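Notes, Module 5: Reading structure tokens.

Key idea: the token line is not a picture. It is a compressed description, and you learn to read it the same way you learned to read a sequence, by spotting repeated patterns. We will look at two proteins. The first is printed below with its tokens.
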Amino acid sequence: MFSKEALSKRFGGKWSVESVGVLNSARNEAEDLKHRSINTGDILLGLTVEPSLSKMGLDHDSVRQTVLQINGVGNGLSPDIWSFTPRAAEVIERTIEEARRQDHKLIINPHLILSLIREGEGTSSEVMRILKVDVNKLRKIILEDINQRISANDENLTPNIQSGRSVYLNYLETIRKFMKSPNQDPTLQNQIGFVLKGLAGLIEASNPSDISKK
């Protein structure tokens, strides 16, 4: 089974207990369906514990039935614990990028969901198409979920650094990328509102006397 330490050593990033649990569930799903390697559909099955997915029609039974419709039953899971399909491995890498881009302390389930949406192909995307999931609406829901967790001071999402300066720089870099190519990345577009709110919060929390001295 996967552990936080093993995932960090293999892929990088810092993994939360919840995200490790999802990947272990994905491996169990792959084993049960006798898939040779863990694919994006298996990861999606592991993520069905998230209420936001169930609300969009991605409950475990519906997703499992659709995964079976697409892939059928395989010939058995590889004994190699790190046996991911190329697309599933890309999803893992993008998940780490997603957490880093938002400057979050740990990788959580919403990062995995956003990465699956960005992937755009593979079993998970085909499942969403068959179940007629509005991916733009789902992306918005997930970003709102992250924002709510930040507002609730979720320790998994606290900045990965001590200095507020790095937070400012991260926000400004996101805005810079958006201004350079506003139509290329829908995920980036949806994040701009949260970025601006984050900047406003940081400014409000700053000591006015400190600002006036600069």
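Here is the second protein, with the sequence above and the tokens below, as before.
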Amino acid sequence: MAVAAAAGAVVGASRARRAQRTVVSLGGSRRPWTPVGAAAGAALAVACLHRFGWSWEFVAYSVLMAAAVEQTIVDASTKLLVRGTTNVAGGLGLVLLSVASLVRDEPGRIATMVACALLAGASLGLVALVSRGGLGAGDVRLGAVLAMYTGWLGWSQAATAVAAGVASAGVVALLLIVAGRATRRTRIALGPFLILAAVATVLAPSVR
């Protein structure tokens, strides 16, 4: 556990610093994200290890957690997502989870996670078209990648994670509008909600 916590803290701090550089380059303000990233990275690494043990799944979901730290900071600060971070997390996750499936002799998981990613991407893409800019391409890509990770655990986990992320964002947006702190034209960062829902789904004790 100590090794996982230390490694998670280092990776989390690194991703937080990278996120901060991205935020500043996009005109955002500099904030002390590094200790937050370190703490989050350590906690997520320990939770992943507790959930999956030392396994290919642990490695794969650690990649997700690292990307989650960076993208949450960037999206919450700028309402934008880093395409490269999403793409790398998706590519590595596909390879690592495929290896995990083969090691477990459960190749059907590969087809399931790919199908979940495609369905989530198509569904969110449709919402993006209907909302006319209310949902960005970055959110669609991120949602597809998160659905892949949660889809490896099962269809219901992927559906629950995407639905919970979108619903929670909608509830928060509604509350802000009621409180007079936003209007229907105000753009809400969806990424952190999708990420939180996916991370909670992955770490929740369930059938593996």
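Summary for the second protein:
- The chain has eight helices and no strands.
- Helices lie at 2-25, 33-52, 56-78, 83-103, 108-131, 137-151, 155-178, 191-203.
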